[in-house]
Design goal:
Length: about 240
């Protein structure tokens, strides 16, 4: 590809050999003819054939770029690596397990194009899953976690764990980085003075592979992160405007 596309789709993956290429094909089918785009798959230390399958797919998919972490560094780091490498001014993210529906990306992009003009500047269009296609324990843990987060952070987001998001590359790179930041992007966008909006999206059952997260370990880590993000929001001081004189 030559030049800079409007949109960079960033997909973190780890051990998703059965899901990666079908997901890539769905992304391209959803976006061709609707936007100039590239797709970045960031392999986060897979031990299966994920990287090989993606490298082979480049022969027929000119929009594809493949990045690889030498060792597992976590989903947030994979997203950040993709955003740093991205050529587009807009970033769409979705999970690599195939549960997010790429057909929702054009709608998020349409919402962005419609609402981008305004003050404060739009930073994020966040997907929120209408119906979770996960087991009972994951749904309950998510409900508790989201309720606690909304109560403490007041970010107006009912489903911050949804991987399907569209945001400004510049806005994302202005956020303070830490591991698990991907679960707090709405609150941190608000902290930096950006406007956010929400769009209902689909959610699908996992067809292949296994989840990389356990219910209890994710909950314990989230509680620690939550208090840190709450502190960050309370310590924010943003100017009304910045003028060059």
């Amino acid at each position: 590809m030559t030049g800079s596309p409007e949109l960079s789709v960033v997909v973190p993956v780890k051990d998703e050999v059965e899901n990666a290429v079908p997901l890539l094909n769905e992304i391209c089918a959803a976006l061709r003819g609707k936007a100039s785009f590239e797709v970045l798959f960031i392999d986060d230390g897979s031990s299966d054939g994920t990287v090989g399958a993606l490298v082979a797919a480049r022969a027929t998919t000119p929009e594809l770029r493949v990045l690889r972490h030498a060792k597992n560094s976590g989903q947030s780091r994979a997203v950040r690596s993709g955003v740093i490498a991205a050529r587009g001014s807009l970033i769409a993210t979705l999970d690599g397990d195939g549960q997010n529906d790429p057909a929702d990306i054009p709608n998020l992009l349409a919402v962005w194009r419609r609402e981008a003009a305004g003050t404060p500047e739009l930073g994020l269009v966040a997907g929120q899953r209408r119906k979770r296609e996960d087991n009972f324990m994951k749904r309950m843990a998510s409900r508790v976690g989201n309720g606690t987060r909304q109560w403490l952070l007041q970010d107006g987001t009912r489903d911050t764990g949804c991987g399907l998001k569209l945001f400004s590359r510049t806005a994302f790179l202005s956020l303070p980085y830490f591991d698990h930041i991907h679960r707090f992007i709405p609150a941190l966008m608000l902290r930096e003075g950006y406007r956010i909006t929400h769009v209902d999206v689909h959610h699908r059952p996992r067809s292949h592979g296994q989840s990389k997260y356990g219910t209890l370990d994710r909950l314990l880590v989230s509680l620690s992160d939550l208090m840190g993000v709450r502190w960050l929001r309370r310590r924010a001081r943003n100017p009304v405007r910045v003028d060059e004189v």
